[in-house]
Specification:
This protein has 302 residues and is mainly α. The protein contains eleven helices and no strands. It has two domains: 143 residues, no CATH class; 130 residues, no CATH class.
Length: 302
């Protein structure tokens, strides 16, 4: 029965939705029965419980890619929940919520477009599962599920601080940084969208099989989609800074996400592509890892 479901894309998507609904519903019930009043800590425990339940669903269907949408799904759920539990909705909270929603819906939709069915698991997960079969459940829980969960929660700390700044009785002055925050967040979403569309168009052309995408943003950057993602999280910090200039310390939130991409995601992907794509070593020398401008360029360009 499970194998039949896993081979069908529609049924696979329904299964993932059911797992997430159950995970969030149980986490919400646990949240309501927590006896302390610290909302942020309760939100964190909500996050950990939900991630654990998604992990159990991943183990049931032997596919840790079930967790993949969590990166974009969790924020669009927890941010309005945090607003309701603290300040209530106002125009400024709605602005950042709309921006996060656009980012989350676009990223989740892109994940859905690329999704085939539950028989296919991310190549990185397959690598760990094959290399460390006995340790796989531990690696999956802490490395694939819990680690990104912690990174996203840390990335959301400036958002929580921004929302909390509008608590009743607080005096908030909006400065030019606020406008910059909106502009940077939109810029980041557009960069990610353009990069994904360009890559999807490239892959759809059968004549490009085995080739390297050197068009558009991919001409100077090997990972322009990651560049957009990193910029988005820095924009969340800018939103916080616009209303709480004393919270410079929260720069560590987007920095952790930046470090994750630079020292984990990008090296792993580059290493794989060096083995599977002919000429990727040359492409690597002629491009930046992230920045889609000012690349070293080809000899001809020089």
């Amino acid at each position: 029965m499970i194998e039949k479901i896993k081979h069908n894309k529609t049924l696979s998507i329904i299964v993932i939705i059911i797992i997430y609904v159950i995970a969030f519903a149980i986490s919400y019930l646990c949240y309501r029965y927590l006896i302390f009043d610290n909302v942020l800590l309760k939100m964190f425990l909500f996050d950990v419980i939900a991630t654990t339940l998604v992990f159990l669903g991943s183990m049931l269907f032997n596919n840790s890619s079930i967790y993949d949408p969590y990166w974009s799904v969790f924020p669009i759920f927890i941010v309005p929940f945090f607003i309701l539990e603290t300040t209530g909705f106002n125009v400024y909270n709605i602005i950042i919520l709309v921006i996060i929603a656009i980012w989350a819906i676009r990223l989740t939709a892109n994940c859905l477009i690329r999704f085939k069915n539950l028989t296919i698991q991310d190549w990185r997960y397959n690598k760990f599962q094959t290399k460390y079969p006995k340790l796989w459940p531990i690696i999956s829980y802490f490395g694939i599920h819990m680690f990104p969960t912690l990174v996203v929660f840390i990335g959301l700390l400036p958002v929580f601080a921004y929302i909390d700044a509008f608590s009743e009785g607080n005096s908030v002055e909006i400065n030019g940084t606020y406008v910059i925050s909106i502009a940077v967040s939109i810029f980041a979403i557009v960069i990610e969208m353009i990069a994904d569309v360009q890559m999807e168009k490239f892959k759809k052309d059968s004549s490009n099989i085995g080739k390297i995408n050197r068009s558009g943003l991919w001409k100077k950057s090997r990972h322009p989609n990651y560049f957009g993602e990193i910029i988005f999280w820095f924009s969340m910090f800018l939103f916080c800074l616009a209303v709480r200039t004393d919270l410079w310390i929260l720069i560590f939130s987007p920095l952790i996400i930046f470090l994750m991409f630079v020292f984990i995601s990008i090296p792993m992907l580059d290493k794989k592509l060096l083995k599977s794509k002919s000429g990727y070593d040359v492409y690597q020398k002629e491009t930046n890892a992230l920045l889609p401008i000012f690349a070293p360029g080809t000899k001809d360009e020089k």
